[in-house]
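Example 3.
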Amino acid sequence: MWLAQLLDRNRQCFPDKVALADAYRSVTWSQFHERVHRLARGLAALGVGHGDRVAVLSTDRIEVLETYFAAARIGALFVPLNHSLAAPEVAGVVERVRPRVVVGESEVLRRFPDLPAGRRIALDEPAFAQLGAGEGGAALPEVADTDPVAVLHTSATTGQAKGVTVDQRSLRSIALGWLAVARPDQEAVLVNCCPLYHGSMVVTLTYLAAGATAVLLPGFTPQRALAAVAAHRATHVWLVPQMLRFMLQARSSHTADLSTLREVLYGAAPMPPEVYAEAAERLGCGFRQVYGMTEVGGPFVTLGPDEHPAPGEVGEAIPAGRVVPGMSVRAVDGDGRESAPGAVGEIVVRGPGVMQGYWNDPAATAAITTPDGWTRTGDLGRIDPGGRIHLVDRSKDVILRAGQNVYPSEVERVLRLHPAVLDAAVVGVPDPDYGQVPKAYVVTGGDPDRAALQQHLAAHLAPYKRPRHIEYIEQVPRNPAGKIVKRLLPT
Amino acid sequence: MSVIRPMLVELTGITEYADGVGDDVDLTASGIDSGDLVRLVLLIEQRTGVEITAEDMEGLATIADYEAFVAGRGAAGRSAADPVGGA
């Protein structure tokens, strides 16, 4: 009952303090607590019960977190869905998870008219606010910390998103470990620039656990983020490095009052040294790196402000940081044996934050788990004598685009679905704004219809997955086993 | 002469933004990446020198919106810099 405990404590301790603010309104801890419980009763009255799924399709706003907490309160699982995905991608997830209810913004729901869900509820219409109004004080069920609480979706090498099933024990473990090292308090005001449909939303839950205020943006723009920091006198901001680069480029960064910032939390992609140097100089606050993975409960490693290098002294990549209390990490070799001290190996994780497994996919769960119970991250790194993890590469074939994973195999599969495409290969290429972007090499039978191919990609892939560059070639280089040899692609 | 369309082509690499997307089409609905909309605003600021606030952005959805905004602010910027007018 971790999320219920969190709510109860903060209502007791900080009833009149703002818990959440979004583009439309704010609510205190007392109001948030009341609304969550009423909504929980309303969902129960609609027939949502223990183990049912409640999908959420929305930009970031208060109702999203109300729904997450309300579903959890009755033992249902909340299932955040990425509203920027293409219709077939969303439909595929909904088909597998089979939610009893989909809650979403009316405009977003209109974009997905054919979802196979039991019921659709627009969270921005009056009926949503009235849910549970007539249910009085009916008792809510007991929920165990080991009950699954959410199915969070990740991209996947197979080209089909995987549902990561986590329980309340996972959320509690990560939150308590994080609170012990990062020590946010109830005076903190966190501007959350990352979407709540992403696994990184655990960071925001963790700050809420401290009684902090979370400020939600209806989609990131540097102007919105800067305005939110100034308007709410924010002490913390949570973003990916590319967002920070955009904020520094915006003209309003020179006029907005950012003096209240104490920490910039960043993660999901490496911090470019020049961005860090400029931000450190102009903002004059601390920086905290967040290294996480949805499968292990979210942010399980952090590097605090005191351990960040001086802005002009970033010789190599900034370390990811140290594991949070309660979780364990080690580097292992190809046989799963712990690497020699300081040697590079795959980073594996164990502890109560780790997921229960992939939703209805025991084979995929087994594939990511070592025989002795460690979860494989797919990241290659070394652990220095001070316990700091230094990431050096990925063992999985993935493109890291502004903090979002794009799997080449998924994009290649969609390209090959087009009747004119005979073969395709996708790689990541450097990009100054996004870190990496997908580039496709495509073989066609004749003159390529570029516009038709763009339309095909738009119909099947979210915008961030679509190739930024497409080069038409005669043949995709493959080895005798048929595997693409990407190093032989034209540069 | 469009100011915005060449920027969209430059940012996205998609030539349809030169003439294949209508002036009144919501850019988000056109399938543009949200990051590219962010970059469009930053590019407009960089090339025209005008500041675009979060509040300004609430009213910008279509190519026509952006064109009108830039034209209006550009005119305002010129008259502020050159209050007596002139060639």
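The domain at 4-79 of chain B is CATH 1.10.1200.10 (Non-ribosomal Peptide Synthetase Peptidyl Carrier Protein; Chain A). Chain B touches chain A through 27 residues (CB under 8 Å).
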